[in-house]
Structures are given as structure tokens and as C-alpha cells.
Amino acid sequence: MGKDGQGSAMNRGHIPAEVLASYADGSLADGMCLIVAGHLTFCPRCRDHLDRLEALGGALLSEPAPGCCAKPDLGKILSRLDQGEPRAAAPGIAIPAPLPGAPRCAAIDHLPRCLRERLGSALTAPGWRAIGPGLAVVDVPVAGLGTLRLLRCDAGVALPEHEHAGPSAALILRGSLCEDGRSFGRGDLILSRAGDRHAPVIGEDGPCVVLMLDEETPLEILPGR
């Protein structure tokens, strides 16, 4: 895996701690909640971090009220959490209820079970629109700010070079893509920052489906050079 700032602007990532905390307490925005829930089904490391975060919250809540007894020792609590082995079993994953106009459900094997209610449109269902040869998107209604889309790409397609106008997250649900010799596959979370530019190529192993969240404004396709 390459390092930030070397070659590709695409960075494979894990869910930041502050985002996991918002997810755990139910305050995370709708679109990012779906991205997080999907990634958690694939990533034991992030599931373990979520488990530890929830355990820490429970430990703090179970401590005596201030003024009654000694102040909770946060270091000891963290030490207790670190003694356990990471758990690979997926937790109960919180998913926001469907919004009016959301894509209809369908049994699509490549979608994580926790996302099928919200993202379960069949790939051939109405609502998909072509945005280029071998490329199609469908919007996913979400509450609050941000634009959430499913992107479907045929095998071997080269995406146009584009620039991100704001922070974005992409979760690969099926297939693979690559750029500058780096490969990204099912379950990988790709985090981009404002100003990042890239032009990934879809792998030859079949169609690729990506769940994309643009937190500010949609990405800008750059003119050909």
C-alpha cells in the first residue's frame, strides 16, 4: 500500500476514530453512516475498534458519579480494553431507515446484507443513467448534506480524470480498480481530500460497483489533455 502524497491520490483507509464515535452514538450523518456500515462488514480492524469504543463508553457510564467515589482511571479502562483479542464477528450494524424515493430492494449478492434495504436496486432497474461508455450512476436519497451515489463500471473501463471539490469517501462493493500500480478491491474504503485528482482504471475481473459519498459538492470531470 502506497503512502499519502506518493503517486496516486487514492488512499486506502480505515474509519477515523471520531467518525466511529459518531456512528456509535447515532449522531453520524446519513450518507456517511451507510459508508461506515458497509466497511464494517468487511474490516475486522474497524469492527474491533468499534467494539472497544462501545466498551469504553459502557465502562465510563458504569463508573460512580463524580463526587461520590474516586475519579475513574481512564488509563486503566483503556488497558483493560487492550487486553482482549480482536473479534472478527460482525456487530449489529445500525442503518438509517429508508427515505422516500430510495432505490427499491433486490437480492444483489455483492451488496452487504446490512445495505440491501437502502441500496438494493437491481443493476438493470430503471433509475440508472449513463455518464460515459461503460459507466452508469444512480442517486441514493440521503438526509442532510452530501451526495450519495452508486457507480457501476464495466471491466477494463478507464474513468475520466476528475478532481474532488471536497472530502469524499468511496466503498468498493464489487470488483476492483487500480491506479499507479495500486489495486483496490471489495470492501476497501478510499478516502479523498479536496483537490485530489485521479483517473483510476477498472479491473478486468468483472464489473465494479462503488458507493460514493461527496460531502461538499460533486466531483468535477476535468477536460481531456
UniProtKB/TrEMBL annotation:
InterPro entries recorded: Anti_sigma_zinc_sf (IPR041916), ChrR-like_cupin_dom (IPR025979), RmlC-like_jellyroll (IPR014710), RmlC_Cupin_sf (IPR011051)
Pfam families given in the database record: Cupin_7
Domain ChrR-like cupin: 146-211
Protein name: Anti-sigma factor
